[in-house]
Amino acid sequence: MGGSLAQTPDSVIPQTAAPASQTSRGEAPQTSPESSDASNDTSSDDASSDDGAPPVSGTHAPSAAPSQHASNPAAARAPIAQNAGTRYACRHPAADGYLACDAIVQGAGVPTRGAACSRSAPYCASDLQAAYGLTQTSRGAGRGATVAVVVAYGYPDAAGDLAIYRRNMGLPACNASSGCFKIVNQRGRATALPKPNADSGDDWRPEGALDLDVASAICPNCKLLLVQANSDKSSDLAAAVNAAASLGAGSIANGYGGVEQRGSDSAYRHPGRAITASVGDAGGGVQMPCAYASVVCVGGTSLAATGSGWSERVWHAVASTCSAVVAKPSWQHGTNCKTRAVPDVAAVADPATGVAVYESAGGGWLKMGGTGASASIVAALFALGPAAARSNAPQWMWRHGASHRVGDVKRGF
Question: For the chain, percent helix, then strand, then coil, each to nearest 5?
Fold first, then answer.
């Protein structure tokens, strides 16, 4: 795979929030956590050398004690204030057996090529590349890699919307005729694709546009695979993830989640593939599939240009916490959690410092956020790196993020 992140300038990488202790959120139930979730350790390396948690967002060093912010997840993860300008794309919270997409529409955006891409939100592709030190890497790396985006329902305008985004962002074309862009259903077939959800309060098309656009921004040379599940049922989305893996995607982004519960994680356990999922945008505690030990659980930050550089801080809607049902993985060290600590890493998700997205059914250019965005950014980041990083992506993230310096994760590539 072309390119290496080790060749890029040292700068900021999507970062983690310090995991909260279980006692600070109420003792997590300790009744038989899913032991199978703790065994996703396919590396022969001795994980005991990891003696700390991944770096926290910004320039603060990780601390053994949870931050005041993280100690009150109910307040930290309060639902967003929805109004005429800010809304969830999908219904929150998801009903039992269903999953909700983690896309937030902040308002209209008007980026055009060469304009409104000046280090101010809504951020364009060049902004995201610069913020994460990937300007040079994004130009050359990722060729031959495939990033899959999994969503529910149909998105018939996906190819056209993607073409408009990439053209206006100065990115190379990515379409079906060149073999760069492919759309399939949850069985991995190009026909018949599901229809969009007619419920305007539960429209997954903005999530699909968000995920495809930010993945394009981080890895313009990657092939893109859009997998459309028949519905937002957990079983349908799980089938779509399996389809993405069977079609050879090296990175699979899942910008959705639902209430944490016991169950099989087999659909989200595909060795050799980096599977990311969003930690969520509102209250309700840990969500699946983000908490699975086989998944890179992605949180959110607020991103801002500062002088000639960039800074990030933890986005207020996302708290760090501990799973109630997933056992602590053998490779996860340096947290106060007795079980699986989430998230593992974070990138921009705050809709106030959101990204530019083109989605025609929603009115064209939009300013969007949500941890669906950060999950896709991190999936594309893994596509830029070597296969070794994807062999057990969550473990790799903790191993290479165990220092106080926020650039260390990227240098690990």
Answer: 25, 25, 50
- pLDDT digits 0-9 by tens, 291-339: 999 999 999 999 999 988 999 888 877 767 899 999 999 998 877 889 9
Instruction: Find out whether 303 and 271 touch, Cβ atoms under 8 Å.
Output: no
Render the burial of 350-386: b for 16+ CB within 10 Å, e for the rest.
bbbbbbbbbbeebeebbbbbbbbbbbbbbbbbbbbbb
Measured between alpha carbons, how far is 281 from 349 in angstroms, rounded to an integer?
Answer: 9
Cβ-contact 128, 301 below 8 angstroms:
no
**Sequence letter at residue 403:** S
Residues whose CB falls within 8 Å of the CB of residue 413, separated by 6 or more in sequence, listed in order: 4, 5, 6, 384, 385, 386, 389
Cα gap 313→293, rounded to integer Å: 25
Cα 123 from Cα 247, distance rounded (Å): 31
Residue type (1 letter), 370:
G
How far apart CA 214 and CA 347 sit, in angstroms, is 11
As a whole number of angstroms, the distance between CA 6 and CA 385 comes to: 9
Summarised one tens digit per residue, pLDDT across range 43-97 is 333 333 333 333 223 322 222 222 222 333 333 334 555 555 788 999 888 888 9
**Cis peptide leading into 271, omega within 30 of 0?**
no
Q: How far apart are CA 35 and CA 260, in angstroms?
A: 15
Instruction: Look at strands 339-342 and 321-327 and give their pairing.
Output: antiparallel
Measured N-to-C along each axis, helices 205-218 and 371-384 cross at an angle, to the nearest 10 degrees, of 30
186 within 8 A of 230, measured Cβ to Cβ:
yes
Query: Omega of the bond prior to 289 within 30 degrees of 0, cis?
Result: yes
Beta bridge partners of 317: none
pLDDT of residue 79: 54
